[in-house]
Amino acid sequence: MAHHRLRGGVGRVSGTRICELLGECGQVDAAVMSARDTCELGLRAYFGRNFGQAGELFRLSGAARLDDKAATALATRADEFLRDPPPEDWAGTYYAASK
Length: 99
Known about the structure:
With 99 residues, the protein is of the alpha+beta class. The chain has helices at 30-47, 51-64, 69-83; strands at 2-7, 16-21. The chain has one domain (2-83).
C-alpha cells in the first residue's frame, strides 16, 4: 500500500510524488489503514482548498500514527493556508523555504 503526497523541495520549481510503504498487502494493521484513509480524505480536502477540514483530518491521522510526521506537516500547512490562502492558480505544490 502507498500513501501519496506532493511536495516541492528547497530550490525546486516542480513537485515530487512521495509514497510511503505501509507493509505487505493484506498484512497491514487495520488501525494503520484507517489512519491512511483519513489522511487521504485530508489530501482531497487540501487539494480542494478546504483547508480547515484538511487540517482536522491530518491531525486525526497523525494522532492515530504518532510516527506520521507528514500528517503533522500537512496539518501545519493547511492551517497556514487557512489563514493566508494560496493564489487561485495554486496546484497543490508546496514550496519549501528551508530544509
